[in-house]
Amino acid sequence: xxxxxxxxxxxxxxxxxxxxxxxxxxxxxxxxxxxxxxxxxxxxxxxxxxxxxxxxxxxxxxxxxxxxxxxxxxxxxxxxxxxxxxxxxxxxxxxxxxxxxxxxxxxxxxxxxxxxxxxxxxxxxxxxxxxxxxxxxxxxxxxxxxxxxxxxxxxxxxxxxxxxxxxxxxxxxxxxxxxxxxxxxxxxxxxxxxxxxxxxxxxxxxxxxxxxxxxxxxxxxxxxxxxxxxxxxxxxxxxxxxxxxxxxxxxxxxxxxxxxxxxxxxxxxxxxxxxxxxxxxxxxxxxxxxxxxxxxxxxxxxxxxxxxxx
Length: 310
Prior knowledge:
- It holds the Pfam family DnaJ.
- The chain is mostly helical.
- Helices cover 59% and strands 0% of the residues.
- The protein is globular.
């Protein structure tokens, strides 16, 4: 089976390593490594559950000819920096030729029209990553689709530094997300990098991944108020009000002026039936908090966050 790919950036006689691994162009090494290990578990003969000689042959070709070279290219900081420089130049050229560029996949067409290209791009890549290698015979086409997304993203963000900026746009139009402070990209600490990634993931409802980033941040700085407030927002989106309250309380103990905690803790307290004196409200309030939400709207704050992901 041929693994030749002609879509997206591949059509420029270029190998799109980010598309092969299905990570965003602004992904940092930790994300790249995590994704590579996920793919290896799927494709490597020692860990995969592939049946049939054809599947095993395709998996071996994907791993040896595309996946391993992609990881080798992107795992070294110097190589990755040089590669990103090439992509930035390609983005400038693509922006100049935007009128003549045609994309074939629906996801790329939607990204062309998206109001917030960064958030839409991250969401699209995350969704495709879940099923990228479900059908190995179609894997090269899926990689081509991802590369089209990369092409559109580069074209629409031409001139910007390739980084992962926090977005001020909510994932669901018309739905309010917490107002969070923007973290610096230059000279930021390792904890700040974890928090920035967690904030981005929170805004596109990738809650489990956001939790991992925040747990790593708390290991480094357990007394970081912003980290506790973001962790509280993760629990709030999951309708785990008691856990959200614990982290909001921690955030305010560490920083009484924490904006997120000041805005949302009173709402959580009210939902839990807690008065200003700290006492619990009526027994009905207790029972309501203990009962799991079965409305399909994501719990008490489902209306604020747009509900559970479909």
